[in-house]
Structure formats: C-alpha cells, structure tokens
Amino acid sequence: MSGEAFVTLATTDSYCMGATVVARSLRRHGTTRGIVVMVTPNVSQQSRLALESVFDEVIMVDVMDSEDRLHLALLGRPELGITFTKIHCWTLTQYSKCVFLDADTLVLCNVDELFERDELSAAPDPGWPDCFNSGVFVLRPSLHTHTGLMDHALQHGSFDGNARLHYVSQGRLEIVHFLGPVKPWSSSSQRDDGSSHDLYDFKCNLQRCHLLYRVGSRPCLADALQV
Ligand code: UDP
Ligand code: MN
Q1: Euclidean distance between CA atoms 49 and 21, whole angstroms
Q2: Number of folded domains in the chain?
Q3: pLDDT (0 to 100) of residue 142
Q4: Where does the signal peptide begin and end (predicted)?
Q5: Closest ligand 1 atom, CA of 86?
C-alpha cells in the first residue's frame, strides 16, 4: 500500500488527551496524510471513542516494556519503559511511510514535508545530543525491520547509544515537544475522562517551550523540532 500516515501512541487515558491534540493540530494545518493512533487494551472505551472522532484509525497493540532500568534510571524516568510500545509502528505495513509523533507534541504548521525524508530521520536529543530523540521520527513500516528491532533489543537492550539517521534541521519552529515528566495536560487539567479537549493554550505553555528550547546544546533541537 502506498498511503502515508502520522502515527502517535497512547497507553493511558491521560496520554489520549495529548494524542487528541496531536491529531487536531495536524488537521488544523491541513495535512493530506492519514492520522493514526496506537492504543493499548487498558485505554478506556470512552477514550477510544473520543480518539475515533479525530483519528482516521485507532489501532490496538500490545503493551511492550523495554525494562531497561539502568538507562531509565539515568534519565530519571522509570515509567518510560512502556514507550518501547512505539516500536509497533513498524508493523503498520498498510502505510508505505509514517511520521511518528509523541502524544506530547503539538504541530504548529503543515509538516507534510517530513514525508519527503527517509527512514530514519529525527532530531538530536537536547540532553544527549549524540543520540536522537524519539519524539518525532520518520520510518518505513516493515515487518522485517520490526523483527530486527525486537531481536536487537532482546540481545542488546533498547538503548545501544548508536544512531544512524538523518538529522532534521532547518529554519523555523514547526513542532513543539513537551518532553519531560510534566505534560501540558497534567498541569492545566487533571481530566482523565477521555473527553475531547481544545488545543493547548499555546501562550500558557510558551514559557516552558522557550525553556526547553534553550536547554538544547545545538540550534537544532528535538523538543522544538525545526524542519
Ligand atoms: N506514552 C504512553 N504512555 C505512557 C508513557 C508514554 O502512551 O505511560 C507514549 C506517548 O505517546 C508519549 C511517548 O510514549 O508521548 C513518549 O513518552 P513521553 O512523551 O512521556 O517521554 P518524553 O518525551 O517526556 O521523554
Ligand atoms: Mn514525548
């Protein structure tokens, strides 16, 4: 199949709020690509229904956990093992190319140009600039690659410190990534009912964006992806 899609992931009702914002921000800026969310079985039916109203496809996947406690402890984010679930995006072979977006990203303009890039395109991590940040990346779904990644992770762990990819960097701020333990939805609202939400009040979060923007050690940042 030749279709292309943006893909995000939500394993909890809280992250569904972020996922909804990702989809709405993509639609607001007129994407011509599909918009897909992967969810895990523990996401409530109410949240799934809310996602179905903004996403083209809601795809159920299994939870995976990297259990990479050493690196997660170094990051101070023991809860992030579950983000390994995003590897499922390589199984979406109904699409020829995908752009994965974390559920804590916000698209500020049309970013369809990302589909002109190859696997694997991403931006450097602001904290560990010799690694890429997995909040936004371009991939080609392939069961072969998926199996290879799973095997590699089983043998070497999910973090091997190697990055062979194309760094994305250009002029202006197009995608904001609210990385870190505090998310826009955790500070502004504790609603966990899966109901639909408007785009974040960008002004409220601007200060945090700028802070994130400054902590990076390169002009091209993962948390404020410039394309
Ligand atoms: N995620 C999720 N449930 C979790 C943690 C993470 O669905 O409990 C997904 C979600 O798409 C999230 C991504 O994994 O955006 C990466 O996690 P997070 O954004 O919290 O990591 P950070 O970008 O802060 O390092
Ligand atoms: Mn993130």
Answers
A1: 15
A2: 1
A3: 97
A4: none
A5: 14
